[in-house]
Amino acid sequence: VQLVESGGGLVQPGGSLRLSCAASGFTFSSYNMKWFRQAPGKGRELVANITCSGDITNYADSVNGRFTISRDNAKTTVYLQMNSLKPADTAVYYCQVLISVGAYWGRGTSVTVSS
Question: Which residues contact 100 (CB under 8 A, 6 or more apart)?
């Protein structure tokens, strides 16, 4: 199982970024996917999740209405569109999949929201 995040960077408050997580090594279309984030000095927080077919999504209250999770099963990629970014969104963002009894994580992509 391999998960590779990309798309992070430095953005001004109010700006947008689109994160991608390219997955391989498992049957991507059979598994729900999640995005987490970890801000400096804080624990890892669940940001959003999406079912295997993409028909159901859920969001943390802190990002609801600003972030959108989506997936392309043909490309085995999950996305996180982030709009109206705030300094509080500064964190390393990780994608995750649960397979059997194991949780698999990517190495993360860093997002910094600052003027």
Answer: none
> How far is it, in rounded angstroms, from Cα 111 to Cα 105?
17
Question: β-strand 77-82 against 9-11: which pairing, if any?
Answer: unpaired
CA distance linking residue 115 with residue 103, whole number of Å: 35
- Residue by residue, DSSP assigns 40-108 as TTS-EEEEEEE-TTS--EEE-TTTTTTEEEEEETTTTEEEEEE-S--GGG-EEEEEEEEETTEEEE---
Query: What pLDDT, on a 0 to 100 scale, did the predictor assign at position 57?
Result: 98
Stretch 8-25: mean pLDDT, rounded? 98
User: Which of 89, 109, 111, 106 lies closest to 1, judged by CA?
Assistant: 106
Distances from the Cα of 114 to the Cαs of 37, 79, 89, 91, in angstroms? Answer: 17, 22, 10, 12
Q: Is the pLDDT of residue 101 over 90?
A: no
Stretch 21-27: mean pLDDT, rounded?
Answer: 97
